[in-house]
Amino acid sequence: xxxxxxxxxxxxxxxxxxxxxxxxxxxxxxxxxxxxxxxxxxxxxxxxxxxxxxxxxxxxxxxxxxxxxxxxxxxxxxxxxxxxxxxxxxxxxxxxxxxxxxxxxxxxxxxxxxxxxxxxxxxxxxxxxxxxxxxxxxxxxxxxxxxxxxxxxxxxxxxxxxxxxxxxxxxxxxxxxxxxxxxxxxxxxxxxxxxxxxxxxxxxxxxxxxxxxxxxxxxxxxxxxxxxxxxxxxxxxxxxxxxxxxxxxxxxxxxxxxxxxxxxxxxxxxxxxxxxxxxxxxxxxxxxxxxxxxxxxxxxxxxxxxxxx
Length: 309
Description:
14% helix, mainly beta, outer membrane lipoprotein receptor (LolB), chain A, 5 helices, globular
C-alpha cells in the first residue's frame, strides 16, 4: 500500500557527489546569500550549544548533503508492481549519469555555504573526495568559531571539532564512515547496501517515488526515496541510535538536479532533524583535480586550517 511522505516546512535538498569534467560553476540562483552571524552577550552560551549540535549532525548530509521549501503535496502513488532491488539500483545508476560517466571521475571537490535559518547562522562547507574511497569533509560556522572535519583515508577514519578535539573512529562509527566514503554510491547502490529491499511506492512532494530500505552500521535504518521515472534520489531518511543510544531521525531532500559533463548533480540539500534544520548551497564543483592522499590521513594535531584547493 503506497503511503504519502510529506516534507516539513522549510525543507530542501542535494546529494553528495556526482560530477565530471573540469570546473563547473553552479548558477547563482542556487546560492543563499549569507547573513552575518552575531554571537555575543547572553545568547553566547545557547548559540554555542546549538551550533555544536548542528555540527554533530552535519556530515550526515555532506557526503555526499539547499534552500528549504515546502514540497507540493499530492495523492499517494497508485499500487503497481514493484521493481526488484537490482532493477531499482540499475535505474538509480542510469539516472545519476551512468557507470561510464562516473568511471571518468577520479576526484571531486565541492564547496559551498551552510545556513541555519532559525539561528541566523551561516558558514562554509567543503568536501574533497577521491576514488575509490577517500574523503575529507570540512565545515566552519560563525566566522570560523566552530570548525568540524571528518576524514577517511581508505582505512582509518577520524573526526575533529573545536569543542571536543581530535578523535579516531572505531566500531560502528568507522564502518559508517567507510560506507559514506564510497565515491560512486549511486551507480553501486545494491553492491554497497546488499540488504537493499524495495518496500513500496509513495509521493515525495511532486515526485512519484519508490521506497527502498537498507541497514547501515550501528543499528541504523536507511530509507531511500528514488524518483519512479528518473531513478534519481529525491530524499533519504536515516533512523537509529546516536552515540548516547537515543534513537534519532535525520531527513534529507535532494532537488534542482543539474547536468555537468553527463553527471546529474542535485544543487540543493536540506537536512531536518528533531531539533533543527539547515540548508547547504553548493557554489562550486571541481573534478579530476590533483588531490594529495595525505589530506585524508588522520592529523597529528588539531586540523583547523582550510582544505580548499
